Amino acid sequence: MKHKPIPQGRMMSRKLREGLESTAVTGLTLVILFIFLIPMFYGIVTALKTDSQFSKIGAPWWPATEGQFEYEGRNYEIYLVPIDGEMQELALVVKGRTNSSFVDPDHPERGLIEWEGVWRQLDRAWTPDPQWNNFVKAWNTINFPMLLSNTLMYAGITTLGAVISASLVAYGFARFRIPYKNVLFMLMLSTVILPSAVTLIPTYFVWYRLGLVGTWLPLIMPAFFSWGTNVFLLRQFFLSLPRELDEAAMIDGAGPFRIFWSIIIPQAVPALTAVALFHFFWSWNDFFGPLIYLAGNPTKFPITVGLTAFNNLYSQSTNLIQASALISAVLPVIVFFFAQRVFMQGVVVTGVEK
Amino acid sequence: MSEKTKSPQNGNQRKPKMTRRQKKEALWGLLFLSPWIIGFLAFYVLPMIASFGFSLMDFNPTLPEQARFIGFQNWQRALFQDPEVRQSFLRTIQFAAISLPIGLGFSLFLAIILNSKNVLGKNVYRTLFYMPTMIPLVASVLIWNGVLNEHTGWINVLIERFTGIQATGTQGLRWLADPKLVYFAYTMFGLWGVGNAMIIFLAGLQGVPTELYEAAEIDGATWLQRLFKITIPMITSVIFYQLVLSVIGSLQYFLAPFVLNQGTGFPQGMTRFYMVYFYKQSFTFSNMGYGATLAWLMFIVALIITVVLFGTARRWVYYASEEL
Fold it and tell me: For residue range B143-162, what is the model confidence (pLDDT) as tens digits?
């Protein structure tokens, strides 16, 4: 690149520089993204492999099986044979120590091809053979319908509880003058960073004495008493709603519940959706709670705990483990793609306005 | 007459008594807060007190009649006699010292490049970088466990192919079996969950007034100068928020080691973190008195860290608006 005289070149070089910058930054982002998503490709590719491919030396990275060819009613293995300096995929028909006979799968009518050399030193030819059936196998082995319905029930009920309770509490914080409200609010926020272990043992003990360990109740109940982050998000949103409508309704004689239900809630649908999504994903992901409260009752397991148990039992079946991990990821990822705008706005509200 | 004598007293009472209307409003408010108040008492306050009570007892939930009061013996054991407490805590800190800067740095870095006006197709990248955050953590740990496999995992295969260094096999990079590498491997699992932090940083970056950049550009500031003199100082409040949450989160780090090795601490006890040890004591050995002690210790540590962080915040965190 030549340096142009400064007065004229400034505009040009600036444009050029911006173009270069744009290419460089976009390229960098693409490379990072590619590396970032490598495990995902790996998971998909691995899930489609046969069991035997993992232990075979010389197996390709993509899902494949060793090629076979049926010739005159019998199956022969296909090898990579160097003939005239060119690699050809040929089926080995007659095995010999120093020379063997092959047949070309594309032209079997041409008959046997003699080849001099040791066939044991040849590599097998692999043909792409994705095992879509692995997903079915994983689905059945792990009893996915049961795990899925457990998870859906858990996520559904707690999401409902979380949204109802958080919106009631947030309304209280946003619209009423209550003595020591700020203290209460700070207390509520502080529960967000409280390590859950410190309340776990007595809570567990109570549920244990009630004979409810091994049921969903200990996991579902707390959702109906509101969670700090959800309340925070909704309170921020309720505060942004104009008070005029509330006041007009009050003059018309509407009580607080009526105002909450007919005025606040209809305006807050986006925020409520965000909270619902948060909670749905959170409970879909929840591991520690179910692990502790459902221990010893595999019929109640959600996907996360079931997947872990499956991994411990079938740690050799890499392909099935990858397939089941992917199956469990499909639903949240789909929901996310449809609802990402609402969801990301919710993330922003809880994260930035503090 | 009587009014005159009473008035100074009334004047002293700065807060006048609530009127009936205010009382009614407060009652309604409390009614709406009641789910939280009940939950706060039932699931936070009482269990915390009870947890402290349990820490003074030798206690097994299956044999409650054998529970007995032993004073501060559990605390003595945890603080002075049980070396595993200190070790598992130090491991947790060591892991956090590696994973927190990398995780926060990576999410901030992503946010900065995605906020750059020069990147084409921003929204697509944003969605794709966020996507793995949606994958249940258990599933992503299993996927990473495969991709980091020392023999067949793609990470080692790719490293070998591109650099020529022998990465696969028992002589290569044994990500999950080598005590020196395992924390980096676990850090990589965490990078798949940077989506939330990235979005929050991105929103913070978008809130930085553009006039500042324009002024800096006129003054001839370089990209790096703008980054360290404008961008980062302006979003310290967001960084602080993320820092607090991730520190508290990493104290409770549990899932990956539990999914991969059921808390055996493989390799060489390196992954027996504090929370894993707490789980083992409380739920594997049913040693709930001691477990409650460990939980309270964690709470105290978390409290100290939070207080210290908030104390330092005054020096380096910038809030655009004064009111909190």
Answer: 999 999 888 889 998 898 88
